Predict the structure.
Amino acid sequence: MDHARTARSKRFETGALLLAVLILFAVTCLIAQTRVFWYDEIFTRQIAKLGSWKRIVAALHDGIDLQPPIFFFLTAQTRYIGGEEVGLRLPGILGFTFAGFSLYVIARRWFSPGYAVGVALTPWILFFDDLVIEARPYGLVIGSAALALLGWTYRDRWPRAGRIGYLAGMLGAGAAHYYGFMIAAPFGVAAAWTLWRKRRWDLWTILGCICAAVPNLWNLPLIHEAIAIYKDGAWNRPSWFVLADSLYGGSLAVLAAMFLVYLLLRRGGKEESLPDGEFLACWVGFSAIPIIAMFMAMTISGMFVVRYFSMYSLGYGLLLAYLLARSAKGSRRVGFRAGCAALLAFACVVAFSVRFFQAERDNVLLQCADLTGLLEPPEFRASHLLIGDAHLALQLSQYCDDIRNRIVFGADPARALVYHGNSTDQKGMLRLRENSPVTVEPLDEFLRGERHELVVFDSRSSILKAYLSNSPEYAGRLHLVKEDETYAILRLDPAVAADAP
């Protein structure tokens, strides 16, 4: 009878898990239709439109983007599934969905369902509004990393399937993003622990670490070219202060607090079966990936953003569950409360994200209407709209059909470096020039060739107002039309009119 009840309970849990995964996936796809494309995603769209592997690789050799070709090729295949706003984001959504499923299965090896729910939702809570619904490779990376961790975790019970899943996940993570090879770090730490404590070489784990580096060796020319183009003047230069002040810094603070609680409460009481040192070493290695990557960025690439290393959340969630379970002596009641807290936190993140995405879409559409109305008067009917914010220029090109052909982005990497200390967007837009949804022109070349009244849109990330106001060539022809705290709209008289008697 006890065996029958256990079997029914497991079947119910399996059914509930699969249903939850399907609901999560469906809801995420619905929300994806609300979010407008942003700067990086539009680069993905333009490259995916090239279609063939050969054309994608050629564009990447020109420095159009900093991601491996396999990501764009896969995205090109899903582009129209459910419409572009879902299709382009589908690889990332699938990756995060699989990561949540895998983490639940991994956590259930040692923890009760409540703890497992919290572990499964950790990446979603941390990255839902930033990475889950995004046409970039981070979802593929975390999904591949989760596959590697799932296969590695169960390789003792299902050796062939576990090893195949582990090696496939390692290759997939390395192929999806140039920083994906960092997945080798946690498994390398685990192999080192095995060698130290058990005096045994874990050859399969070491082989997986080698596999993680293979895609980068294949893509080495692209990596060298990308670093050469973007390292000088990068907006995301590595800094320990930036890392400490990021989401990762907050995550470590929570982990440290939980560790202190564990030290205070770990003695006494009956505990469930918990993972041994090999697994703990792996989870600690995952949690330390951004720190290891910072050293690498400072010495090699010169570029660092925590989003590149979101896979740290896999081990991080498992470590939190481990410390909580040890502190609570394996209490299922505490685990249930932890799972409910994770569900509540996730619901709050989703609600906030939906409001933010809708407000962002409304704001873009309102800007489209305002700028369309501004360009309607007779004096502006032949005018171009010069925009100095690359993000805004690309967004307006997607959602402002009536003025798309009149939008111009004036690129000037040298002056952007002087005014803002970085030039990544400016270089990126020039590289996108041949495949851009918006007209991209070198700034001075465009200004000197323009023979009509020009409408200029300046924002906080733009250099236009500062440059035009400080330049004797343009300052006398510049007039303020509208201004508030976040942007300014100006009019630049044509040179021929200014020279007329």
User: Anything to note?
Assistant: Residues 2-358 form one domain.
